[in-house]
Amino acid sequence: xxxxxxxxxxxxxxxxxxxAGLAGIVSAANQRRYPETPTKPSEGWGSLxxxxxxxxxxxxxxxxxxxxxxxxTNHNSTPIVALRYYYDEPDPSLIKRFGDSDWRRTSNRGxxxxxxxxxxxxxxxxxxxATRNDVEVTNYAxxxxxxxxxxxxxxxxxxxxxxxxxxxxxxxxxxxxxxxxNLRIAPNVKLSGILxxxxxxxxxxxxxxxxxxxxxxxxxxxxxxxxSKLGPAKIAITHYAxxxxxxxxxxxxxxxxxxYRKSKYDDKELKKLPVSLSGQRMVQDVWQTLLxxxxxxxxxxxxxxxxxxxxxxxxxxxxxxxx
Length: 323
What we know:
- With 323 residues, the protein is an alpha+beta fold.
- Helix content is 32%, strand content 29%.
- It folds into two domains: 3-160, no CATH class; 169-321, no CATH class.
- Strands 1, 2, 3, 4, 5, 6, 7, 8, 9, 10, 11, 12 and 13 form a 13-stranded antiparallel beta sheet that branches.
- Helix 5 packs across helix 8 (302-320).
- The longest helix has 26 residues, at 275-300.
């Protein structure tokens, strides 16, 4: 279950090809709403504003009274639709316990939240889906999003939002370099730490779970191998422009991310937001403000590609000889 109203904020990113825009998404979601009083295991759309108890496992035993879904504009002046997808699943342990009783007693409800944003790309929307569970993404998230654009002529489509030219293994190596040199990513963006980093070299996975220190053998080895496939990485970012704050993020090569609850805003008004709203706000700020700045700096760093990358790898090789 992936709700933006509590817990770890885990986001998968998709691109939605559609000629109908957000208005078409709203219309399609309203045609595919989860029934208020289902008579059998069901699935369908509701609103992100719904009471979160309806999305709990035992929420299946409650009638689902959902809020109206509509197009809104977020604090970044971006048109947005906020949805929640519900689905019921039989639970073998409950079936064994209660037998052929009412399906509500032998099923659990799952749910995940979805933001759909119109980021001014022709015939394309961005979907931020609050789950990185492979089974949930494959069995529910992708099919549900595909259904929303299936009635178009020609039908729309859903694709992963992998940004290979930006968030590639070298991107994570570049983060290690920026940390080692104590360089700011941008005037208002400081890399305060890399809390963990994963890497694969010749089929063997390495994982730095106690933080990255470029004078430690395991950290140096990740760099010195050169051909290591790096990522994901958990990083700490201090942002000195709006929204000011401290953010702990897990970045994945497929452009997905996680926002940890240790993240916090400095702004007095944003600090007052309840958890149910601060998570929603933070996901939008990370996607629309922090990550574009980080990726743009990496993409524009020509000296990294022409000079600093090779120097960094060679330095790590020499340092590694001291162990």
